[in-house]
Amino acid sequence: MKNVDVLFFDILGTVVDWRGSITDKVEAFLKRHDISHIDARALTDTWVGHYDRAIDPIRKGQRSFTSLDTINRENLETCLAQFNLPPSQFDHEELNILSHAWHTLDPWPDAVEGITRLKEHYIVAPLSDGHTRLLINMAKHAHLPWDMIFGADMSQSYKPSPRAYLHACELLNISPQRAMLVAAHDYDLEGARSCGLKTAFVPREHGANPSKETDAPLPDQWDYKAGNLLELAALLNKIR
Question: What is a single Pfam family found in this protein's UniProt entry (predicted)?
Answer without folding.
Answer: Hydrolase
